[in-house]
Amino acid sequence: MNQAFTQSSQHNSLGKVTTHRLTGQVLSLETDNGKAEITVFNPGVFRIRIVKDAFTEDFSYAVTGKPEKCEMNLAETNDKLVLSTGKLKLEINRNPARFTFYTSDGRLINSDDKAFGTSWIGTEVTTYKKLQEGERFIGLGEKTGNLDRRGSAYDNWNTDNPRYGPNDDPLYVTIPFYIGLHSGLAYGIFMDNTHRSRFNFGASNDRFSSFSADDGEMDYYFIHDDKVAGILSDYTLLTGRMTMPPLWALGYQQCRWSYFPDSEVLNVVRNFRDRKIPLDVIYLDIHYMDAYKIFTWHPTRFSNPAKLISDLKSLGVHTTVIVDPGIKVEKGYEAYEDGLKKDMFIKYPDGQVYTAQVWPGWCHFPDFTKPAAREWWGDKFSGLVADGVDGFWNDMNEIASWGGGTTPHMVQLDWEGKHAAYRQAKNVYGMEMARSTYEGARKLMNNQRPLILTRAGYAGLQRYTALWTGDNQASEEHMMLGARLLNSLGLSGVSFTGVDVGGFSKDATPSLFARWIGIGAFSPFFRSHTHYDTKSAEPWTYGETVENISRNYIQLRYKLMPYIYAAFHESVETGMPVNRSLAIDYTFDEKIYNYIYQNQYLFGPSILVAPTESTRDLVKVYLPAGEWYNFHTGIKLQGNSEITTECPVHILPLFIKAGAVIPMQKAVQSTSESPGDVLYLHLFSGNESSEFVYYEDDGNSYNYEKGAFYKRSITFDPVKRHLKILAKEGSFPGRFKKAQLLLHGFPEGLKFKLNNGALAFEGSEIDLFNALVTNDPQYLETKHSKLEVLIAEINLVDDEITLSW
Ligand code: GLC
Question: In the predicted model, is pLDDT for residue 549 greater than 60?
Answer without folding.
Answer: yes
